[in-house]
């Protein structure tokens, strides 16, 4: 079960409206097509309720959290809360790391 889908479902269970924020780009090199996933604004899930908007990037394990934080730093937050949602195998709820330190 991909962590992006788990993150979307997690926020929906909390009462948010959550959507996937990834697009798949096709890059053609001669006869070869390479598909590349691109997160929008550094997030792969956007969750919204009446009081806040969350830009969430999902990761399996704690090993590359820093890379996900660095990806968020490329974009302004626009007042949205930015988090890295860390899943470990077998976990039912994730560890949430707030990127902006709030």
Descriptive tags:
19% helix; alpha+beta; 102 residues; five-stranded mixed beta sheet
DSSP helical segment count: 2
Shape: globular
In terms of structural class, how would the helical and strand content be classed? alpha+beta
Backbone CA Rg: 14 Å
Q: For the largest beta sheet, what order do the strands appear in spatially?
A: 1-4-5-6-7
The average pLDDT score comes to 90
Point out poorly predicted stretches. none
Q: Percentage of helical residues?
A: 10-25%
Can you put this structure into words, describing what you see?
This protein has 102 residues and is α+β, with helices and mostly antiparallel strands. Helices cover 19% and strands 42% of the residues. It contains 2 helices and 7 strands; from the N terminus they run αβββββαββ. The strands form 2 sheets. A 5-stranded mixed β-sheet has the order 1-4-5-6-7, sandwiched between helices. A two-stranded antiparallel sheet has the order 2-3. The radius of gyration is 14 Å and the shape is globular.
């Amino acid at each position: 079960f991909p962590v992006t889908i788990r993150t979307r479902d997690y926020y929906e269970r909390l009462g948010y409206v959550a959507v996937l924020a990834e697009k798949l780009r096709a890059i053609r090199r001669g006869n070869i097509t390479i598909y590349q996933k691109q997160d929008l604004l550094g997030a792969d899930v956007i969750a919204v309720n009446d009081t806040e908007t969350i830009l969430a990037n999902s990761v399996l394990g704690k090993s590359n959290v820093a890379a996900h934080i660095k990806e968020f730093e490329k974009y302004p937050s626009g007042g949205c809360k930015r988090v890295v949602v860390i899943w470990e195998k077998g976990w039912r709820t994730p560890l949430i790391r707030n990127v902006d330190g709030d």
